[in-house]
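Below: protein 1.
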Amino acid sequence: MKNILLKCFLIFIYNQLIIPQSLSTSTYHPLSNAFGISLEFGGTVPKTDYKSDELDATGRLLLEYYFSSRSFQTFGLRLIGSGGFINGNVFSNELTYPPVPDNFRTGFLLLGGGFVYALRFGNSVPYASVTVEYTIFDPGDGSGNQSPNNQYSVYNKNTITYTGEAGIRFPFSDIWSLNFGVNLNFTTTDYLDDVKTGNNNDAFLSFFTGISLYFGKNSDKDYDGVDDEKDLCPDTPEGIFVDESGCQIIEVKPEVFIYDSLKDNFVSNSIFTDGTLYCFQIDIFRDISDAENLQKKIIPSGFKSDIYKISIGNSVWYSVRVGYFKSFNEALLHKEDFFRQKVLK
């Protein structure tokens, strides 16, 4: 059992530290960074030396902490205090001394702790846990009297219990959840029923339902990856891009200017137009390499420049121009600014 618990612990560590790196999301796990207090009640069914295993009652108090996680899973620690009864009847071997009662009912108290691993599945939180508890028990005959071996102090009335549990929680508000769980409790004694036969220790199954109250957990109601306490836009639709304040990033697409060189026409002051857009000429060259060298000087200034191949008579020239602008006056202002900055110095 100890080896099983160790393997479970290593699996939990692997799931918490390795898998989230590749499968994480921008949203918090519902129990991220949460401290939880749970009160649960249910029943027990034992597996002992008695033939008939009867249903009895149990209850427990849980204290838990879940680590912060922006993943579909998280890992936590839990402390458990539980108590209850197990009972059975019709002993399986009648040849015993002292005589064994037809019935037994054992009260128990468990105190311990362990690890819990919680997933996120839709609006529910499935979980699994492994814990170890110090256990005190007191076998009786079902009528309030101590069982024979208990009376003679044949054994120590304390043991260690190893518990594996699985369950599911349904959060119904930011701080409350409805819980259902079932666990198997493996003890290190065969005297839960006051009788020792064979080589198998006693065990029992428990099932619970109850509620949990959570404090301090990370909250991100609109699932945008920004904590609610820092979110200036707490109701952004899921899936959109937001800034560090949780507000939608509105993408402003730059205007695309297409200058029609076939309609190129000189206006004045070295400004040209295609009838819609305007640009101004910086210089004109016979050799394209000279035009390219000039363009390289313009690039660091932030002005957009292009090289136009134009024909003048029988000659080919390369015009270096800056633009584009929506009006002649706008082109003229930018031309004055261009030369005022001494871009070509």
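Below: protein 2.
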Amino acid sequence: MSHPFQVLGEANKPFLESCRHGDLAQIKKHQEAKALDRELLTMGLREAAQGDHIDTMRHLLNAGAKPQSPSVVDEVHSVEAVKALLEHGLTFETRLHPLNTVPLVHLVKRDDVRLVHWCLEQGADPTFGCPNAQSFNDLEKPDQSPKKGSGAVLGMASRRSSPEIVDLLLDHGANIHSSNVLHYATCRKDGRALPIMDHLLRRGADVNEFGYPAFLHFGGTPLHAASYQGNLPAVKWLLEHGADPGVEDAQGSKPLDLAALEEEDEICDVIYEWTRLDDTGKADYRR
């Protein structure tokens, strides 16, 4: 069964293509031909943002498109585009439904130093976002309003951005000890996990920090995260930098248990061999 938005998009391809190309004349013709509801206008705004067509964005916003849509903010990649959204009701503390995020979480994914620096200079708070989970029950709560003291922005930067973005956030008040930064860095699939982990360690990250990133329901250390994600280079890096493979998560599982659960045989071998070489008197974690 097709998603309602997909059906809406298929039925209005000419309008959305006009938005994608920033063709204001054609957009106005579509508006004259029939009334366009807010959802369709917002879909058009997303297309215009993707192409960085600022005049088109402002036109659609004036017509009623929603600046608070996370799918729109996800496509923004210039200061001028952010300005357009801010002029029409978005703020850096706006809660973006249904993802329960704030704009800066989305903007750091662009890995654009100029864009993030501008947002921070305009007052965006890198500690404002979804509250940090302190237990499994926190992860299960359906409605947690963003607030100060969050590590969501820095966590996303660790997962998707460069060391320069991480430094910007830290220099503007982000807390490296409440953001699960190494946990999220192990999620990287772009070949940049180890360089960002090196940088985070230099900035004070703890290789044995226990946290509750969204993908670890029972919490754990960065080694739990890397083992669960199947990131063998990150597992080796963490062990070499002092990660403790004997720490248990809230359910009593060690990193080796998670690797075994995910059938990550190489990681199981590495962790087992590391513990055996480290202390031959330790228990065989594979039992």
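Residues 91-133+145-179 form a domain with the Serine Threonine Protein Phosphatase 5, Tetratricopeptide repeat fold (CATH 1.25.40).
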